[in-house]
Amino acid sequence: MSTFLLEIGLEEIPAHLVTSSEIQLIERTKKFLSEHRLTVGDIKPYSTPRRLAVVLTDVAETSESLSEEKRGPSVDRAQDENGNWTKAALGFARGQGANPEAFEIKDGYVWLTKHTAGVAANEILAKIGDEVVAQMKFSTYMKWANHSFLYVRPIRWLVALLDNEIISFNVLDIATDRFTRGHRFLSSEHIEITSADNYVTTLQSANVVVDATVRKNEIRSQLNTIAEANGWVLQLDTDAAQDLLEEVNNIVEWPTAFAGSFDEKYLEIPDEVLITSMREHQRFFFVTNEKGQLLPHFLSIRNGNREHLDNVIAGNEKVLVARLEDAEFFYHEDQTKSISDYMTKVKKLVFHEKIGTVYEHMQRTGALASAMATALKFDATQQSDLTRASEIYKFDLMTGMVGEFDELQGIMGEHYAKLFGENDAVATAIREHYMPTSANGDVAQSEVGALLAVADKLDSIVTFFAAGLIPSGSNDPYGLRRAATGIVRTLVDKNWHIDLQPLLADFVQQQGVVAETDLTTVVDFMLDRVRKLSLDAGIRQDIVTAGLGNVERADIVYISQRIEVLSQHSSDAGFRDVIEALTRVDRLAVKQVTNATVDPAKFENKSEKDLYQATLTLDLNTLMHDGAENLYVALAKLQQPIAAYFDETMVNAEDESVKDNRYAQLNVIQRLTNGLGDLTQIVIK
C-alpha cells in the first residue's frame, strides 16, 4: 500500500476561505476516488495560508475492476425472423465495444456483460489536477499573468507524490514536483519532500505547522500559558473568541504568542470599544481579572519565531494605542452633542435610493411597532418606552464613534442614550433592535427591544420587496434572509402570536407603500425561513412541508409549533394510524367540499353518531388558541371513531341527502385537520 500527497501552493489565501477550501478539497478528492474506484485508507487534509493539501494513506495499487450488465434492445427488435442480428443489435454491440457473440438473452432483452479492468493508481492520480485542483470553486477569485483561469489566489507550486514517485500533471503552466516552500521568512525557498510519508515532518523542519488542528491547539496552549503565568482570565470558548482563534489560525504557519499592554486611562472607554479595537481591528485577544473586569493587556500571535519579539510587541502596542486615542477622542466629542442634534443628521441619511431616508424608515418602524404592541397588549409603560425608542433608535449612526467603528452601532447607542438621560428600557431597546446579529446569535431579551427588532426588520423586508429588491438564488445583498430569520426566531422566542397577513396589509395601506410586487410574497418569504430553521433543526422534510401547508393565518409562532408537534409525535407508536385516519378523511372530503351543517337525524348507524359526538365539542379556533399540541391530541382521539366509521359506513350512499350529510361530517373533520397543516404530505413509515 502506498501514500499519496497532493499540495497546492498558493499566494496567501484570505483567512475566512482557508477552512472552507480545505473542506472542499477533501470532498472533491473523495468524489474523485469514488468515481475512479480507487480505494484508500485515510484521507487527511492540511492547510495554511499558503497551501491546501491532502494525504491519502493505504492507496491501492490499482482501481477495482468492474463488471456491468448493459441492457440492449428487446429480442423482437434485436433479431429478424431468421434469427439474425438486426442493425439495432449490432449498433448496441458496437456502442459497448463488444462482439454480438457475447450477447445473452433474458427477460425478453439482449444483454451484454461489460468488464472494465482496474487502472494503476499512478495513472488515475495523474488526473487529479484536471478533475480536482482545477475544479475548485471559491467565493473570491483572482486572475494572474495572462491566464483567463480563475482561482482563489495564484497557484505558485504543485506537489504530487505517490510514495517517492512524482505524479506528473500540469495546472496551467505549473508542473508538479517534489519541492514545497517552507515559512516565508524562516526557511529556504525550496524544500524537498523525499516521500509523501514525510510531508508533515518535512514542513515542521521548515517552520510550518501544516496541520490546522495541531496549529490551533498550539495557539490555544501558548495563549493559555501566558494568561496563567500573569494571573489573567482568557476566555477562548465564546463564539467570538472561537471565530478569532479560527481567523488567527488561518493567517499563520509558525505561531508564537506574546502579550502587550496599554495605558489604564483607556479603561474609561466602554469595554465594547476596547474589545472591538483589539479583536476586530488588530486580531488581539483581550483579558480580564477574575471579576470579569477588562485589563490593560492583550494577547496576540505572531507568524514567526521569538526573535526580535520585543520589537513586534512594541509595534503592536503602538498601533493599538493609535486606535484607542481615536476612540477616546470620539467618546468625549460625541457627548458634546445631543440626541436631537444627531437625529437632525439622521433625517438626511439615505436608507436606500429607492426607499427613502433612515428617518422615514424609523417612522414606519414606529407605526408598525405600535400596531404590534397594541395587538400584543403591551402595557402603558411598555408602549411609552417603545414609542421613545422608535423615535431615536438610529441616532448613534451619526456619532463619530460609530463612524469610526461601525461594528458598535446599537452598542454605542445604548451607552450614549444612558449618558443623555434615557431610561434603561429605551437604551436597551436601541442596542437590541439589531439582534440577532447572526443566524445563531442571541435574540433580544427585553419586550420593547424584541418588538422594535421585529418591526425594524419587517419594515426593511416589506419596503425592499415593494421596491422589487428581492433576494434571488444565493444573492441577498441587503441581508433580508438574515432579517427574516431574526424575525422568526424572535417571535418564537417571545411566543408572540401575530397574523402577519392583515398586519402587513394595514401597514402598507396606512404608510402608502407602493409595491412593484405582490406583497403576499413577503409572507411566503417568512414561511420559507420557518422551513429553513425547521430543516436545520433536523426535522423531517415531509413533516415540515405538512406543517407549512393549509396556512390560513400567517401566525409564525403557531406554524412553527405545529411543525414541532408533528415532529415530536412522529415517533409515537400510534402516529401512523392517526395520520392514516385523518388523511383518509381529507382525501374524501376534498371530493365534495361543503359548509353544510351536519344533521344527526340522517345518521344510519352507531359509528356515525359516535364520530359526530367525538367532534361536537371540538372548536378549531379554541384548539388553535390553546396550541398545536392540544389540537393534535384532540385529533388523535378521533382515530378510533374514524376507523369504526369507515368500517360501517359507505360515504357515497344512494340517498343523496344521506351522502351529503356524510360529506358534511367529513368536512368538519377536515377543517379541524387543516389546523395542523396538510397532513397528506406526511410520508407514513
Summary of the model, kept short:
The chain is an alpha+beta fold and 685 residues long. It contains 28 helices and 17 strands. α9 packs across α10.
Your description of this structure?
It catalyses: tRNA(Gly) + glycine + ATP = glycyl-tRNA(Gly) + AMP + diphosphate. Helices cover 49% and strands 13% of the residues. By secondary structure, it is α+β, with helices and mostly antiparallel strands. It folds into 5 domains: 2-62 and 121-205, Alpha-Beta Plaits (2-Layer Sandwich), CATH 3.30.70; 66-116, no CATH class; 212-333, no CATH class; 341-537, Orthogonal Bundle (Hypothetical protein af1432), CATH 1.10.3210; 560-681, Isoleucyl-tRNA Synthetase, Domain 1. Strands 1, 2, 3, 7, 8, 9 and 10 form a 7-stranded mixed β-sheet that branches. It has a 3-stranded antiparallel β-sheet with strand order 4-6-5. Helix 13 crosses helix 16 (424-432), helix 15 (411-419) packs antiparallel against helix 16 and helix 21 (541-547) crosses helix 22. The two termini are 44 Å apart. The mean pLDDT is 95.
Q: What structural class do the secondary elements suggest?
A: alpha+beta
Unreliable stretches, pLDDT < 50, 5 or more residues?
A: none
**Total beta strand runs:** 17
The first-to-last residue Cα distance is 44 Å
What do the pLDDT scores average to?
95
CATH fold topology of the largest domain? Hypothetical protein af1432
Helix content: 40-55%
Rg over CA atoms, rounded to whole Å, is: 34 Å
- Strand residue percentage: 5-15%
Query: How many domains comprise the coordinates?
Result: 5
User: What does the main sheet amount to?
Assistant: 7 strands, mixed
Count of alpha and pi helical runs: 28
Per the principal axes of the C-alpha atoms, what is the gross shape? flat
Under CATH at level 1, the class of the largest domain stands as Mainly Alpha
What is the CATH architecture term of the largest domain?
Answer: Orthogonal Bundle
Keywords: Aminoacyl-tRNA synthetase, ATP-binding, Cytoplasm, Ligase, Nucleotide-binding, Protein biosynthesis
GO molecular function: ATP binding; glycine-tRNA ligase activity
Subunit structure: Tetramer of two alpha and two beta subunits.
Family: Belongs to the class-II aminoacyl-tRNA synthetase family.
